[in-house]
Amino acid sequence: MSNPFSPPEPQQIDNDVPDHYSPNQDDRNLALIAHLSGCVGIVLGGLVGFVGPLILYLMYKDKSPFVESQAKEALNFQITLLILGAICVAITLLSCGTLFPIVFAPLILQIVFGVIAALSVRDGNAYEYPYNIRLFQ
User: Fold this and answer.
1) 116 burial level (CB within 10 Å; 0-12, 13-18, 19+)
2) pLDDT (tens digit per residue) in 43-92
3) Per residue in 91-105, is it b (16+ CB within 10 Å) or e — as a string?
4) Closest Cα to residue 133, out of 31, 50, 51, 62?
5) For the segment 80-120, what is each residue's pLDDT rounded down to a tens digit?
6) Which of 95, 107, 120, 127 is the most buried (most CB within 10 A)?
7) Biased composition, Pro residues: where in the chain (predicted)?
8) Contact indicator for 10, 123 with CB cutoff of 8 Å
9) pTM
10) What would the DSSP string read from start to end of 104-125?
């Protein structure tokens, strides 16, 4: 019987990057751009955060498995945040504005997880967002 207070076992990241593949500096920089483009999307209105990862995915899907997997992960996260944002706006409207601070939750999640992901891929490690709807496999 396992101890309920013990830390969870680390999850094995199931991405499409082969074990023998080591990303070069260009791959790491492009993956970093894919993850940070969501933060740029916040500045541009919050609805265009998925454009950067989508462009990188389409451009590098056959060239670099690391960039492809990280761009897909970032794209899925941006779509997840877009859905979450729509839900938060609906909750705010239904509460007649009482729950207005909830609309900032997707923005905070984008900044926090976007920076964590960028730091991870900068070092050449694949990153997987903890709460992500994976529409693109």
Assistant:
1) middle
2) 776 667 788 888 888 888 888 898 898 889 988 998 888 888 889 999 99
3) ebeeeeeeeeeeeee
4) 50
5) 888 888 899 999 999 898 888 888 888 888 889 989 999 99
6) 127
7) 1-10
8) no
9) 0.77
10) GHHHHHHHHHHHHHHHHHHTT-
